[in-house]
Amino acid sequence: MNTAIFGGTFNPFHLGHLKMLKAVSDLEFIDHILLIPDHIPPHKATDYLADDIHRLNMCNIICKDFPKAEVSSIEVDRKGKSYTIDTVKELKNLYANDNFYFVCGGDMIAILDKWYNFKELFKNVVFLSFTRNDKADFLRDVEKMKQLGAEIVVIDTPIPDISSTDFRNTLKKELLPKEIYDYIKEKGLYNA
């Protein structure tokens, strides 16, 4: 089985995430998608992180519309910083016969070689990367990572450039799936 790992803070789960999930779900060679909220993301600081349970709940709300997708609390349960290679190793034990694909935005491709234990990660997953607006730079980054040993499949679906940090303070309804907006309002998250 081909399993896609789609991790992130999902703080909150916005339309950019939704578009990525739909694009991955539409890939015929992907059988299963694990939506994995980070406990503590190692590569970025966040001004406000909703409780793990709320981010898991938001992911579960979204998964109802995607038969291939399910939520995994593997990183939340582990506690501490969430390094991708640790998650991949744990998933390989749980799903020993699966091939793993790691979903990432085009901005991440440029810094994959800065990730913890990236060489081992490159041996264990194929990256599913969405393109960036600066396509020439993006393709250069893809080639650089391939030369370092990464296998990358480029998904040429435009993803809106939404920064969770930018809109958490104003909570723009138009950037969120309706069910997520309703959940945030109901639970009073992000000062809603």
How would you portray this structure in words?
With about 190 residues, the chain is of the alpha/beta class. It has one domain (about 1-190): Rossmann fold (3-Layer(aba) Sandwich). It is built from 9 helices and 6 strands. The protein has helices spanning about 15-25, 50-65, 75-80, 85-95, 105-110, 120-125, 135-145, 165-170, 180-185; strands spanning about 1-10, 30-35, 70, 100-105, 125-130, 150-155.
Our count of helices gives 9
Give me the count of strands. Answer: 6
Low-confidence stretches: none
Query: What number of domains?
Result: 1
Q: Strand order across the biggest sheet?
A: 3-2-1-4-5-6
**Whole-angstrom Rg:** 16 Å
Main sheet summary? 6 strands, parallel
The CATH superfamily name is HUPs
Order of helices and strands: EHEHEHHEHHEHEHH
CATH architecture classification name: 3-Layer(aba) Sandwich
Q: Output the structural class.
A: alpha/beta
Euclidean distance between termini CA atoms:
41 Å
Beta content comes to: 15-25%
Q: Which geometry do the CA atoms define?
A: globular
- The CATH topology, please? Rossmann fold
CATH class: Alpha Beta
Please state the average pLDDT score. 90
The helicity comes to 40-55%
